[in-house]
């Protein structure tokens, strides 16, 4: 960013000066005087360098996980300043982008974990979630995210994106703690961030997963299924089994839409289902 300032430079000029002489009868006669040297001011623009304005700062909760790491990378590619908070702290991924993220270690179940991590943050994306017993799933999917939403709201964060999950019919009952926690966090988000809260509800998220030193390309097996189920949208309306036809979605699509939702002020607040995620991911970023 450049700021233009002005300085005044004095020049000599030889411009004829006109004088008026009263001749009586209410009439004036003019005579040209000799050329005189009279200084006058001219403005010349001089460019000086000043520090650029601060960029948007994004905090990714759970940034070292499967979805979170893709969100961090997408945000960096968009030129954002990115930080992350998770229980393990710094990512173990040996990739160049990881060194450009500011890593914080903390537990969202502790109210003090977010204090420093939220300093200067303009938007948050939460990828926090997990499985286990029903009580554990409610805490990690619900309570932990609710704590983060409240802390971000009190800190004046503008936008908050929550990676939730699509309904899967009978699976909702089998994993009641998981879905009850997700829906509780959604309710808190849309209440606290009425104009800047976005919930993404993808189905199964696929992509290349890092397992130790190995990379497993799940897309090879799941991508064809996504293409088929995209054309079978009416099947989602079938009683009980309909949600099982929810198409899977690529992790890069989820990351792209999440970052856009967190940074684009005209991105509408509310719930975005898997079909909305697919649609937004195909649009050009603003």
Automatic annotation (TrEMBL):
<protein>
    <recommendedName>
        <fullName>NAD(P)-binding domain-containing protein</fullName>
    </recommendedName>
</protein>
<feature type="domain" description="NAD(P)-binding">
    <location>
        <begin position="62"/>
        <end position="191"/>
    </location>
</feature>
<dbReference type="InterPro" id="IPR016040">
    <property type="entry name" value="NAD(P)-bd_dom"/>
</dbReference>
<dbReference type="InterPro" id="IPR051207">
    <property type="entry name" value="ComplexI_NDUFA9_subunit"/>
</dbReference>
<dbReference type="GO" id="GO:0005739">
    <property type="term" value="C:mitochondrion"/>
</dbReference>
<dbReference type="Pfam" id="PF13460">
    <property type="entry name" value="NAD_binding_10"/>
</dbReference>
<dbReference type="InterPro" id="IPR036291">
    <property type="entry name" value="NAD(P)-bd_dom_sf"/>
</dbReference>
<dbReference type="GO" id="GO:0044877">
    <property type="term" value="F:protein-containing complex binding"/>
</dbReference>
């Amino acid at each position: 960013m450049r700021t233009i300032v002005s300085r005044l430079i004095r020049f000599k000029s030889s411009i004829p000066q006109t004088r008026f002489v009263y001749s009586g009868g209410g009439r004036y006669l003019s005579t040209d005087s000799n050329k005189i040297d009279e200084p006058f001011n001219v403005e010349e623009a001089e460019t000086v360098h000043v520090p650029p304005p601060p960029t948007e700062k994004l905090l990714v909760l759970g940034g070292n996980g499967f979805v979170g790491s893709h969100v961090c990378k997408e945000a960096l590619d968009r030129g954002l300043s990115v930080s992350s908070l998770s229980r393990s702290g710094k990512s173990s991924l040996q990739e160049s982008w990881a060194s450009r993220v500011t890593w914080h270690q903390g537990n969202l179940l502790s109210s003090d974990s977010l204090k420093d991590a939220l300093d200067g943050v303009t938007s948050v994306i939460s990828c926090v979630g997990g499985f286990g017993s029903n009580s554990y799933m409610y805490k990690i999917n619900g309570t932990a995210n609710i704590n983060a939403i409240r802390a971000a709201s009190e800190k004046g964060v503008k936008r908050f994106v929550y990676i939730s999950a699509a309904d899967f019919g009978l699976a909702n009952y089998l994993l009641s703690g998981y879905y009850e926690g997700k829906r509780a966090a959604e309710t808190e988000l849309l209440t606290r961030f009425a104009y800047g809260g976005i919930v993404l509800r993808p189905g199964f998220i696929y992509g290349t997963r890092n397992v130790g030193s190995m990379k497993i390309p799940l897309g090879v097996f799941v991508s064809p299924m996504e293409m088929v189920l995209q054309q079978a949208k009416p099947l989602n309306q079938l009683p009980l089994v309909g949600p099982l036809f929810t198409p899977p979605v690529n992790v890069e699509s989820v990351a792209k839409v999440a970052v856009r939702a967190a940074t684009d002020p005209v991105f509408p607040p509310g719930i975005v289902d898997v079909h909305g995620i697919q649609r937004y991911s195909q649009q050009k970023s603003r």
